[in-house]
Design goal:
Elements lengths: L11 E7 L8 E7 L17 H14 L2 E7 L1 H7 L1 H15 L6 E5 L11 E4 L7 H24 L5 H4 L5 H10 L15 H5 L2
Parallel strand pairs: 1-4, 4-5
Antiparallel strand pairs: 1-2, 2-3
Helix pairs in contact: 1-4, 2-3
């Protein structure tokens, strides 16, 4: 069972991101403030849920959260400032948009770049421990999936509707065959080990 809060006295926003390990597309982050008494038996880390469950929960979260927002950092920005900083920036952008100002941020992971004037707590595997972080993981994941599905219509060869930009064999083979798109992260090792076998 997920914990409802870290500190009952404070307005807490859970923050998480999606798409850090992808070869293509933006990184998405979400910030969510849930009521202290929020309960949902299904709510969990987005990676533990089916696609159908994630989208079902997104509706519940958007309806019942006190505040929620999604922030984005583009592939170009990722290449310029690196993925770790881009993940933090996307989280900051999500917090910027909240219509309630949180008094504390609960961050999934072990590192974060301080948000101005709001204390934070980093929590390793936080999306499996705290409801607000789990909710943020679901919003970040589903909104990013929607975005990758849209990009797939533009560039169907890379199968982004299935791999969502992650480094699958098929995705890397497509890059090797036809090259990159404006959505690829050029600072990444796009071909992986395949680079060793391509110049035969």
């Amino acid at each position: 069972m997920l914990l409802p809060y870290l500190n009952e006295e404070l307005i807490e926003a859970g923050c998480d991101e999606a798409g850090r390990g992808c070869l293509a597309g933006a990184v998405y982050a979400a910030a969510v403030i849930l009521p202290k008494d929020f309960k949902n038996e299904l709510l969990n880390d987005s990676k533990q849920l089916t696609e159908h469950q994630r989208y079902m929960l997104r509706e519940v979260i958007e309806r019942e959260a006190l505040a929620w927002a999604v922030g984005i950092c583009s592939p170009k920005e990722i290449d310029e400032i690196n993925i770790l900083n881009a993940s933090f920036l996307a989280m900051h952008r999500a917090v910027d948009q909240l219509n309630i100002r949180p008094q504390q941020l609960l961050i999934d992971g072990n590192r974060f770049k301080k948000y101005p004037n709001i204390p934070h707590q980093t929590i390793v595997k936080g999306d499996g421990k705290y409801a607000s972080i789990a909710a943020a993981s679901i919003l970040a994941k589903t909104y990013r999936d929607d975005y990758m599905n849209q990009l797939h219509l533009e560039y169907p060869f890379y199968a982004w509707d299935h791999n969502k930009g992650y480094p699958t064999k098929k995705h890397r083979a497509a890059i090797a065959e036809v090259g990159t798109t404006p959505y690829h992260r050029m600072s990444y090792n796009l071909l992986g080990d395949a680079q060793l076998t391509l110049d035969f």
